[in-house]
Input
Amino acid sequence: MTKRTVTLIEGDGIGPEICDSVVRVFEAAGVPIQWEKAIAGLGAIEASGQGVPQETLESIKRNGVALKGPTTTPIAGGHKSVNVTIRKALELYANVRLAKSMPAVETRFQNVDVLIVRENIEDTYAGIEHYQTANVAQCLKLITRQGCEAVIRYTFEEAKKLGRKRVTCVHKANIHKITDGLWLQVFREVAAEYPEIAADDIIVDNCCMQLVARPEQFDVLVLPNLYGDIVSDLCAGIVGGLGVAPGGNIGKSCAVFEAVHGSAPDIAGMGLANPTAILISSIQMLQHMGYIGYAEAIEKAMVAALSSGAKTRDLGGTASTTEYTDAIIANLSPVTQTEPVATTAAMDAKPLSKASMSSWDCVGLDVFVHHDGLPSMPQQIGNFTLRLMSNRGTKVWPGPTPDILLVDHYRCRYVSDAPISRQEALGVLTELTAQQVEWLHVELLWNDAGEAKYTKAQGE
Ligand code: NAI
Output
């Protein structure tokens, strides 16, 4: 059988010890892959001055798959996080974590087996933040149709491949009507292409409550970036903490798998490291590559080793990293399904759709203004009428003005009865500038066949 090459980044601290455990288990199971070692992290900074050398990125791109040990991020020296660098350089749009109950890992819950897929690029993590005034900071929650579709289609493809039955979309579309509304709408569109998989949705706060009450009810969760960040750690806690939490970052043409925990410098080189998390990550990696048979065999052997009491100190046992790895190898059974299952990269399954603005009309603009106390704004500028002013999202003009905390940041909504051009919108700003209004930023208001593509103010 031809062997596929996988990039192996051992990382820092306990990284080499836990990666060695994976290498030994794979060899014993006869997994048809060969490793190509590459460096990243503190070791790489010392060797090359860069946390992620270009050769390492080239190796991942060439092989399409990498297994990464934890890396130490130096606090001084202005070095960027290795994980963020890799994620951005390779556009790894989906973060996948498995939260599965393990024997010998004491938790309140049994029979938990949830796959959590988190969008990895967009949302408030796009990093678009501005101070609007000295008192008001703003972060843009950026949600795109294509970004949603990529991660949601990946989720359904993965669910199909792994024989999972249900995908649940997590959102807050009752509050974030436009952004999470788009996320939910795209979820429903993509779900319709997979009639064999049940699809439903849940509001993120209820999801958290349900997870800590009855986590076994969930199969696959797909979440936008911020909720996914929080809920995936919550799920890790449910099955025994970050020590046993695996993860993968999936891109269009590359995927990088790693444990969620760090480099544990306090126990590095002492033979105490628990390789379970990176082993489960490597099982996820095999599933990703279609080597389902090997993934199953290694998982069974690991469960058998843990059940027999072979566990490392962090799980209350006395086994060293090597002894635990030996126990897994001793429990390996022959793999019957050695051929990889054919897999389609989700992004190749279907081109991403692109909606058009051809039926949209611009009908006004929201001008955000710096002012202490309610500003006196012109009520008519050409065809534009001042419809409302709001402060922190609540309507404060026309009256009655509610008795609320007012900050120095007002949204002034100017609307027109007829569609407007950008030139006309610019005319509003020119007039406001002439009247010494300290405008800060502007949003155009769009209608699609009469349907507003913006939200109303509280009280409007
Ligand atoms: P950490 O996860 O390395 O360690 C926290 C505690 O958990 C320590 O007591 C450690 O001994 C223990 N621990 C972690 N993994 C273990 C394992 N597999 N077996 C047994 N015990 C384990 O977190 P910490 O101390 O905050 O970070 C150390 C370094 O790791 C930092 O430089 C940090 O930036 C980096 N880090 C890297 C990550 C990555 O590369 N994915 C993720 C998180 C942190």
Remarks:
- The chain has 13 helices and 19 strands.
- The first strand starts at residue 4 and ends at 9.
